[in-house]
Specification:
By secondary structure, the protein is an all-alpha fold. It is built from four helices and no strands.
């Protein structure tokens, strides 16, 4: 991969953030309508302890839900592999919910 291709996403992201900040300042958009990236970083830093606790809680719930979904999916897959009746009952729902 060439150097320019490696840096392109980073440069684009920084340019987009700079444009966003510039437009918020230049157009005098109130922060309650659309805060700029700088205001978001400042607010995040000010509430970092509370946000970190919330992040841990959210990740725990997400992990538990992922585990439950994986176990249910494996159980349904084994049932479909073992029984034609189970496959006939489950497969249409699996296709619809994809």
């Amino acid at each position: 991969m060439r150097r320019a291709e490696r840096w392109a996403p980073i440069v684009f992201g920084l340019a987009a953030l700079a444009l966003w900040q510039g437009l918020v300042i230049g157009l005098r958009v109130p922060p309650y309508v659309l805060p700029g990236p700088a205001a978001i970083v400042i607010a995040f830093w000010a509430d970092r302890a509370s946000l970190l606790l919330s992040l841990v809680s959210t990740l725990a719930v997400t992990g538990a839900a992922l585990l439950a979904a994986a176990l249910l999916g494996m159980a349904l897959a084994m049932a479909m592999a073992a029984s034609r009746l189970a496959r006939a009952a489950i497969q249409p729902w699996a296709v619809v919910l994809q």
